[in-house]
């Protein structure tokens, strides 16, 4: 009788162990539905996968990187007031990097690692999306666009991002930091448990009480500026305009190659970035010339 009890206990223990081992699923055999959309019947999904098509502005793959991102309730413990989080809240890579993401969900519920703002001509709806229902791992690959930009990464399940599952991914130098990234940036609306009634910011009331005389002055100045601009426009096409058009015709073929395949928004962003670099270089050159031509103080 005792032997039967021992055998039954061993069988039960082995059964529990085998069940536990099956709880974590590695979603490696997903069906490819085209356009970078892979999924299986067990809750694994990849959307927007791109392993070989270069975004506009990328002449080649500059680097190949792999990262592992974990998602779960336990990673939110270091961020008071949150419920879910990734194990890391900030990523940074070179432009035109081929990035493979291994996404591991450690909770018993569904989580996502979703990246927004990608070029829509290459990534459907401008999105790269990894998803796992329950404990498991899914892997996807994308090629990052060129330029310096900060992209939002989050879980799109209802309230998961609001409860802390949010990060940012910087390409190149990145742009401005995104708000409310746990451990990285301050919340737009920080929680207040003091019990005091909510009062609007003083700056809001100050702006609403601006004297109408100031508004009249501003309108008058704007009207004057408009009149001046109209006068300059009426004077005809200037020599600067003609020179600008000539330069434009000369560099148009090179620009067409550079911006091939890029969306209008990306082209505008790239142009603004180039203008900023030109301005910075010009200011540096002027500063250098001023220092070079300034009289040196005599040493007594």
Q: Report the structural category.
A: alpha+beta
CATH superfamily of the domain at 24-171: Cupredoxins -  blue copper proteins
Rounded to the nearest angstrom, the distance between the terminal CA atoms is 109 Å
Are there runs of 5+ residues with pLDDT below 50, and where? 14-22, 202-215, 230-236
Number of helices: 5
Written as H for each helix and E for each strand, in order along the chain, the element string is: HEEEEEEEEEEEEEHHHH
Portion in strands: 15-25%
Q: Share of helix among residues?
A: 25-40%
Write down the overall mean pLDDT. 80
CATH class of the domain at 24-171: Mainly Beta
The CATH architecture of the domain at 24-171 is Sandwich
Read across the widest sheet, the strand sequence of neighbours is: 2-3-4-10-9-12-13-7
Looking at CATH, which topology of the domain at 24-171 would you report? Immunoglobulin-like
The number of strands is 13
**Molecular shape:** globular
Largest sheet composition: 8 strands, mixed
CA radius of gyration: 29 Å
Model description:
It is a single chain. The chain has 300 residues and is of the alpha+beta class. Among the domains are: 24-171, Immunoglobulin-like (Sandwich); 243-293. 34% of the residues lie in helices and 22% in strands. The chain has five helices and 13 strands. The chain has helices spanning 2-23, 202-208, 212-234, 239-258, 264-293, and strands spanning 25-26, 31-32, 38-39, 44-47, 63-72, 85-86, 90-93, 97-105, 110-115, 128-133, 136-143, 149-154, 166-171. The strands form two sheets. The chain has an eight-stranded mixed sheet, with no helix packed on it. It is globular, with a radius of gyration of 29 Å.
